[in-house]
């Protein structure tokens, strides 16, 4: 008993590939996000988690894929650099300790009169 295989014709294959290319091209456009949109994405991510389509519903100019890609490429890194864990929004202990040490040393210098008026106002 022999099995016959169905081979779609060349036109159907090209049509399928062209649809995939058009889908990739529609999402490859780089859109700019404003600072307000950054804040909204961060707040909604803290509230909703990785539910990108729900977050994108509140940003009418952006799709869920755009929001997810922007989160992965920009906002997650931004929070990490600020010392905030992007998954649970807690401050990393070492960053918190470093900031406390800096503030304590600055206050010590301030009370000892080691900081000039120009530095203290800045």
UniProtKB/TrEMBL annotation:
<protein>
    <submittedName>
        <fullName>Uncharacterized protein</fullName>
    </submittedName>
</protein>
<keyword id="KW-0539">Nucleus</keyword>
<dbReference type="GO" id="GO:0005634">
    <property type="term" value="C:nucleus"/>
</dbReference>
<dbReference type="InterPro" id="IPR001005">
    <property type="entry name" value="SANT/Myb"/>
</dbReference>
<dbReference type="GO" id="GO:0000987">
    <property type="term" value="F:cis-regulatory region sequence-specific DNA binding"/>
</dbReference>
<keyword id="KW-0677">Repeat</keyword>
<feature type="domain" description="HTH myb-type">
    <location>
        <begin position="29"/>
        <end position="79"/>
    </location>
</feature>
<feature type="domain" description="Myb-like">
    <location>
        <begin position="29"/>
        <end position="75"/>
    </location>
</feature>
<dbReference type="InterPro" id="IPR015495">
    <property type="entry name" value="Myb_TF_plants"/>
</dbReference>
<dbReference type="InterPro" id="IPR009057">
    <property type="entry name" value="Homeodomain-like_sf"/>
</dbReference>
<dbReference type="GO" id="GO:0006355">
    <property type="term" value="P:regulation of DNA-templated transcription"/>
</dbReference>
<dbReference type="InterPro" id="IPR017930">
    <property type="entry name" value="Myb_dom"/>
</dbReference>
<keyword id="KW-0238">DNA-binding</keyword>
<dbReference type="Pfam" id="PF00249">
    <property type="entry name" value="Myb_DNA-binding"/>
</dbReference>
<dbReference type="GO" id="GO:0010597">
    <property type="term" value="P:green leaf volatile biosynthetic process"/>
</dbReference>
């Amino acid at each position: 008993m022999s099995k016959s295989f169905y081979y779609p014709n060349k036109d159907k294959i090209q049509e399928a590939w062209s649809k995939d290319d058009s889908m990739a091209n529609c999402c490859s456009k780089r859109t700019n996000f404003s600072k307000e949109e950054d804040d909204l994405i961060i707040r909604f991510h803290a509230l909703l988690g990785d539910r990108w389509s729900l977050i994108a519903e509140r940003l009418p100019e952006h799709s869920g894929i755009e929001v997810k890609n922007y989160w992965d490429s920009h906002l997650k890194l931004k929070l990490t650099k600020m010392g905030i864990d992007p998954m649970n929004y807690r401050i990393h202990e070492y960053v918190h300790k470093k900031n406390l040490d800096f503030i304590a040393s600055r206050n010590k210098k301030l009370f000892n009169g080691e900081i000039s008026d120009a530095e203290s106002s800045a």
